[in-house]
Amino acid sequence: MLNTFSRTILLFCLSSLSQAQLVPIDERELSNTTGQAFINIDRSSSASQNLDFTKLTFGLDVKTSLNADLLELGKYDVAGEAAGSADIKISDFALGHIDENGTLVPFEISDPFIELAFEDVGGKQNLAGVRLGFGGALGKLSGNIEYLTGNIDVGIRGVGRSIYDKAGFFQDILLAAAGVRNNSILSAGAELVDKDTGLSDRFRAQYVGMTNGQNLSCDQNCGALSFLLDLDFTSSQGCGVLGIDTCFPLTNFKSLDIGDNGNKSEGLFLSFQTKNIAWVDGNTSTPTSRGAFMNIPNGGITVNFDQAFNGTPRARTKYVDPYFGGN
To answer: Which own/partner contact pairs does 222-226 have at CB distance under 8 Å and 24+ positions apart?
Structure first.
């Protein structure tokens, strides 16, 4: 059964495709009609947050190419943060890229939405937050990321050889003792971190890496003693494992692939809020902080160890650079 809003949209669409005179449809006929509304409106509330939410989802599949000299959101001074910093600051921001054949590869978006959060203050509904999000996203996100506030989960997966290339003689012995081989397939998770402490840092972060206590995992081709990877001496502490760096500047990653093996990543959004708000998608609740916030969920970004250690080059994003020399 379609709701009232969906019926209205359906009738509008049907009328736009017909030149015949409009004829009223009774409830029985309408109840046998199925379809998808172009716009869907959902309303919900959170008593614990004292917030009411209105979400407008557009049933669209979008392919786009976007370039901006600067994406800077939430620029205000905060105690303990660098003067002039911002919640999110990405110069030369771009979505989509141009491949080696000169073909434009757009950034793909499905089911984009806008969500508003209202707070009841003295009987008045005040706007407390706005969220711009995508039901699915796939493609390259490029830019020089200087500051980032949000939840960015990065999967790192690659061969042991890449780690041996960064290790010294003493580390080589320890890695070999732990059953790590050149062809071993290892993985780890990374998130926004504080470079000085190795702790998670979701506010104006400049580094991404393994947090304290996190270990490498052996997925394939490891020796019998690979269980040693789970011991404390192989866990990341203060942005290092066995003297090997495990935290990296965000500026190293000029282009990032959003999506998982060609599949769209769900849950990508950018939000703005005047207070801490937990935005909800189905059974997933994402806490956000006051100001600007970007969310790239699990599986949204995957890099190999060579890319983690050395960064990723910027993909070409323009056919002609108006500033001579950039991408």
So the answer is: 222/179, 222/180, 222/181, 222/184, 222/186, 223/178, 223/179, 223/180, 223/181, 224/179, 225/177, 225/178, 225/179, 226/178, 226/179, 226/180, 226/184
Cα 159 from Cα 182, distance rounded (Å)? 6
Render the burial of 92-103: b for 16+ CB within 10 Å, e for the rest: bbbbbbbeeeee
The DSSP output letter for 200 is B
pTM of the entire predicted model: 0.80
Report which DSSP code applies to 265: B
Give the pLDDT score at 223: 76
Confidence at residue 138, expressed as pLDDT on a 0 to 100 scale: 94
| Structural tokens at position 121 | 């203050």
Helix segments in 207-266, DSSP class H: none
Contact 268, 296 (CB under 8 A): yes
pLDDT at 73: 95
Question: 272: which DSSP letter?
Answer: E
Show the tokens assigned to 176.
């070999």
Tokens representing residue 238 in the block: 């203060």
Q: In this structure, are residues 237 and 209 in contact, taking their beta carbons and an 8 Å threshold?
A: no
pLDDT, tens only, 256-272? 999 877 888 888 999 99
Low-confidence ranges of the chain (pLDDT < 50): 1-20
The CA distance from 136 to 141, in Å, is: 14
Compute the distance between CA of residue 14 and CA of residue 21 in angstroms, rounded to an integer.
12
Distance CA 149, CA 255 (A): 18
- Backbone region of residue 79 per phi and psi (left: phi > 0; alpha: psi in -120 to 50; beta: other values): beta
Which residue type does 225 have?
L
Cβ burial of 290 (10 Å; 0-12, 13-18, 19+) is middle
d(CA 158, CA 217): 11
Counted residue by residue, the chain has a size of 327
